[in-house]
């Protein structure tokens, strides 16, 4: 999208395609008292359009402030995590968003002068059934006002990625097995006796190439939990296999 349409157009297209909520999504609004913890000095407002549900919360940098959105995932699977805000030229370009799952916290810097009124994707994760997760929006080191409006967690289904799905439906020109699968820190690629590996490429569910190797035993310790596509290129052709990383 970025290459074809430019950075800002690519963001707009991505926000529209991935930002449409689905029936089974988990959505936690800032007014959900049972699942939201508010710390510091926040002001509810409807002054800027594009907010989710009834209003949004804003905080300046005068007092240390954060909003924690908590959610419980009912079914194990790969999920995409989103948040949303309203935009203004005077808002922070470096608002801190922190997503915590399985004792691991990933931090994201959000430019709140842009992309307001959309569910903006942060990252994709494999989440266990019954797992409690949280998203914290904080003004720590922020350079201007920040916004907290909601958390959305959406299951990633195979049909959302047409190119990968189409390849899954095509029989491989060789016998191949990835084990263990799901895996933790590594997996082994097993091929027919007369099939030689040329290259294996691993893509995340957003289509990003995250690892390339020529080894049969592949180290995945640097990859996050989630669903991946492994493109296997051999002397007999190429094929794609699913890989689940679960730590």
Compose a concise summary of this entry.
9% of the residues lie in helices and 45% in strands.
Count of extended strands: 19
Mean pLDDT, nearest integer? 86
Biggest sheet architecture? 5 strands, antiparallel
Shape verdict:
elongated
Rounded to the nearest angstrom, the distance between the terminal CA atoms is 31 Å
User: Count of DSSP helices?
Assistant: 3
Helix fraction bin: under 10%
CATH topology heading of the largest domain = Jelly Rolls
List segments where confidence is low: pLDDT < 50 over at least 5 consecutive residues: 1-10, 159-170
Strand content: over 45%
Please report the first level of CATH classification, the CATH class of the largest domain: Mainly Beta
Number of domains: 2
Strand order of the largest sheet: 2-5-10-7-8
From the coordinates shown, what is the CATH architecture of the largest domain?
Sandwich
> What is Rg?
20 Å
Structural class: mainly beta
* CATH superfamily placement of the largest domain: Galactose-binding domain-like
Order of helices and strands: HHEEEEEEEEEEEEHEEEEEEE
Describe this entry's structure for a reader:
The chain has 247 residues and is mainly beta. It has 2 domains: 2-153, Jelly Rolls; 159-245, Immunoglobulins (Immunoglobulin-like), CATH 2.60.40.10. 9% of the residues lie in helices and 45% in strands. It is built from 3 helices and 19 strands. It has helices at residues 2-5, 7-18, 162-168; strands at residues 26-29, 36-39, 43-45, 56-59, 66-72, 77-84, 95-101, 104-110, 120-127, 132-138, 146-148, 150-155, 176-179, 186-191, 197-204, 209-213, 217-219, 226-234, 237-245. The strands form 5 sheets. The chain has a 5-stranded antiparallel beta sheet with strand order 2-5-10-7-8, with no helix packed on it. It is elongated.
